[in-house]
């Protein structure tokens, strides 16, 4: 049922957009794409991927699992590619965590390092989003007091989890909270890594926002930067919703944000289409890393095992 909803939901969003706006915004967006804009987007995504990989390396190191930066970059590209082309938007992250966990002989820690790395990035993104929406006019300005209260409540709960060090017999839920708090303290908030994680996350958010602003300009939007920045901050959150090859929630949210800002829903859909193509092209190196990893695993599987005596002799 959940798998069907992940496909049907985005399809319904696209269907409603086509019904209300027609296919012209989608086609107009595709027509405006040019090589220079794609090259710029590829460069920006390369920088954001490097920052995200650095963040993952810091978190993994805090949890006690080794991860080199080149390996992290390749795995992150592979993860982004799978997230873009497969339904759900999290398959690549699961694959990244499992693959790294197998390499270090600890799948649990591999998955946890990916989970906390992604959470750290989203927390920084949330803080930056709230700051932008408080400072600049936006379609959601009237909802900002509620959002600020919600963020404060989540932050308070987060601190309680981190500080919790219960002793004695505990329930399963208490053990989970305690383990999560330990992971956050060691992997995210450790003195040697929290600043790097925050900086890497902030740079990644700024880079993705720059890609969207570039896409909007390419699609023909001429609104000033200060008017577009809140919209970009809102649209970037479309990635948390299930999608099909990145389609559905992004176009729907962008159409709403552009319409609410008085820029036209059709122009928003065109910008979302350009942004989607830019992200897809920029993530194509992940397909190369995916093939390389598959070939490497195939060679390991096919490599004949030497008899015990011969292996001992070689050692």
Model description:
The protein has 315 residues and is mostly helical. The protein is globular. Residues 311-315 have low confidence and may be disordered. The chain contains 14 helices and no strands. It has helices at residues 2-21, 24-32, 35-62, 69-85, 91-103, 107-135, 144-163, 172-188, 194-218, 225-235, 249-260, 265-282, 285-302, 308-314. The protein has one domain (2-13, 22-295). Helix 4 runs antiparallel to helix 5 (91-103) and helix 9 crosses helix 10.
At a glance:
The chain is 77% helix and 0% strand.
Question: Which descriptors would you attach to this protein?
Answer:
315 residues, mainly alpha, 14 helices, 77% helix, disordered C terminus
Counting helices, strands and paired strands, the structural category is: mainly alpha
Report the end-to-end length measured between terminal Cα atoms: 54 Å
What is the alpha-carbon Rg in Å?
22 Å
In total, the number of strands is 0
What average pLDDT do the residues reach?
85
User: What does the overall shape look like?
Assistant: globular
Provide the β-strand percentage band: under 5%
Q: Uncertain regions: pLDDT < 50 for 5+ in a row?
A: 311-315
How many domains make up the coordinates?
A: 1
Order of helices and strands: HHHHHHHHHHHHHH
Main β-sheet description: none
Please tally the helical runs, counting DSSP H or I stretches of 4 or more residues: 14
Helix content: over 70%
